[in-house]
Specification:
The chain has 408 residues and is mainly beta. It has 2 domains: 184 residues, Acid Proteases (Cathepsin D, subunit A, domain 1), CATH 2.40.70; 171 residues, Beta Barrel (Cathepsin D, subunit A, domain 1), CATH 2.40.70.10. Helices cover 12% and strands 39% of the residues. The chain contains 7 helices and 25 strands. A 7-stranded mixed beta sheet has the order 20-19-14-15-23-16-22. The two termini are 24 Å apart. The protein binds 2-acetamido-2-deoxy-beta-D-glucopyranose (7 copies). The site of one 2-acetamido-2-deoxy-beta-D-glucopyranose has 4 residues, from strand 6. Keywords: Aspartyl protease, Hydrolase, Protease, Signal. Belongs to the peptidase A1 family. GO terms for molecular function: aspartic-type endopeptidase activity.
Length: 408
């Protein structure tokens, strides 16, 4: 399996943000993160994404969905975090689509003098790719960066599946997603690491910002999580913020949900009218509601490739491929043709042919399409800096040096 060496987190002190004097008094904390591509040459990626998204629109405890192991052609970003005194380092998958932080899946939890066992049992049932975690809830000291330690409720799995080769999950969704994952206390929301950094006075704002970059090899350390502020070296221009959307099926207190419409190409053919969808670090592709997906297939001429499980286009079609525009709150976010294709260097990992050109859009399927219009997963986040702002119930987006880059 692909594993990377632990990299010590580092603290970035904001020194030059004159416009925001608060930021000069309080550090924001940046951690390096690593992108992994665990492919075994068989694609189950769209299936996994579809199942994952089904989980996101439903209460996962009612999910009828079966598991697909994460190491089966899966892609994830992970971060190394120290827990305990003396500390043990754990490699956790970053997930803005769930709220529980837990470990013990691969490397066993090492109890130290800072471990406090609670009377709660943990039972997180994820859908595809993430399996489940059963165990005991502990409180422990989590060291986010040198000198930045918080007390944090963490699950310690005694049995889990689907998370290999990671040690667990760093849950960064709004904390309300954790309600019902413990028992007997099944009514409290567990504060996330971001909430606790803020609540325990370590950061100035209750937010976490994510910088992903397009990747043509893996594993590679090429991302950054920033708690409490934003890292201006990772984006260009200004960050624009959009309020979280509240609908019946995507309550803003559970998801990072926003509203967007989609246009394709210079003729600006609308392929999806304004609808609620989510921004998600844990989805390796970009999901579109079935109607919109079918329109996209029509305008691109793509065909579904069974072997790769992805849409495929010919070199001639790639030459003609036009941009896909996300219109969000009066702003336009462009996905260039290059941003719409799967990194060709990783084709074979997904069961594809070396020289073929695959697209990163997938069909959310009829069931999910009724509940949400899109999932802006990793290919979107690799082109736009994203701020998950709990304190102000909003999502911020900015361009990066990679927004228009030809990389894939
Ligand atoms: C990859 O994993 C899948 C699911 O576990 C399995 O069915 C398949 O045989 C594996 N393929 C290879 C080439 O190992
Ligand atoms: C965990 O939750 C799932 C889904 O609600 C349930 O089917 C399962 O029995 C629970 N497991 C335990 C050990 O409580
Ligand atoms: C772990 O969970 C699986 C699936 O629910 C179950 O079959 C297995 O018996 C469990 N193992 C232990 C040691 O509890
Ligand atoms: C997936 O991980 C399991 C351990 O959880 C391991 O037994 C299995 O061989 C892995 N599969 C692949 C395709 O790497
Ligand atoms: C919490 O547990 C009680 C007792 O088992 C159950 O009636 C209730 O539905 C549960 N609530 C949630 C939110 O899971
Ligand atoms: C579409 O717009 C792009 C720039 O956004 C331009 O490079 C391209 O030539 C245009 N294509 C057509 C067919 O007008
Ligand atoms: C968007 O809404 C308009 C007005 O209801 C409708 O005419 C049009 O067909 C819709 N477009 C798509 C792509 O659904």
């Amino acid at each position: 399996m692909l594993l990377v060496a632990a990299l010590a987190p580092f603290v970035v002190l904001a020194t030059s943000v004159a416009a925001n004097p608060k930021a000069t008094r309080n550090p924001h904390i940046s951690l390096s993160i690593t992108k992994h591509v665990n492919g075994n040459g068989t694609s189950s990626l769209p299936l996994r994404d579809q199942k994952r998204s089904m989980n996101l629109v439903k209460d996962c405890r009612q999910s009828e969905i079966t598991d697909v192991p994460l190491n089966d052609s899966a892609i994830a970003y992970s971060v190394n975090i120290d827990v305990g005194d003396p500390p043990t380092n754990y490699n956790l998958m970053i997930d803005t689509g769930s709220a529980n932080t837990w470990l013990g899946a691969n490397k066993p939890y090492k109890k130290t003098k800072t471990s406090v066992k609670t009377s709660d049992v943990l039972n997180v049932t994820y859908s595809a790719g993430l399996g489940f975690a059963h165990g005991i809830e502990y409180e422990d000291t989590v060291i986010i960066a040198p000198g930045v330690a918080i007390r944090q409720s963490i699950g310690v799995a005694s049995n889990s599946s689907g998370i290999y080769p990671y040690d667990g999950v760093l849950g960064l969704s709004p904390k309300y997603w954790s309600i019902g994952m413990l028992s007997p206390d099944n009514t409290s929301a567990i504060p996330t690491v971001t909430d606790n950094l803020y609540g325990q006075g370590k950061i100035e704002q209750n937010l976490v910002a994510v910088s992903f970059e397009p990747t043509t090899s893996a594993p590679v350390i090429n991302g950054e999580l920033t708690f409490g502020g934003t890292d201006s070296t990772k984006y260009t221009g200004d960050i624009t913020y959009f309020p979280l959307t509240v609908t019946e099926t995507t309550p803003a207190n559970k998801y990072w949900a926003i509203e967007a419409s989609f246009r394709y190409g210079n003729a600006s053919a609308t392929i999806l009218n304004t609808t609620a969808g989510i921004v998600d670090t844990g989805t390796p592709l970009i999901g579109l509601a079935t109607d919109a997906y079918n329109r996209y297939v029509d305008v691109t001429g793509a065909v579904y490739d069974e072997k790769a499980g992805l849409l495929r286009i010919t070199p001639a079609q790639y030459k003609n491929l036009q941009s896909l525009f996300f219109d969000i709150g009066g702003k336009t976010y462009e996905l260039t043709p290059n941003a719409q294709i799967w990194p060709r260097a990783l084709n074979t990992l997904m069961g594809g042919e070396t020289n073929s050109i695959y697209l990163v859009l997938f069909d959310l399927g009829p069931k999910i399409s009724k509940e949400m219009g899109f999932i802006a997963g990793m290919p979107f986040l690799e082109r736009y800096y994203c701020v998950f702002d709990t304190g102000n119930s909003r999502v911020g987006l900015a361009t990066t040096p990679f927004t228009y880059a030809d990389i894939n």
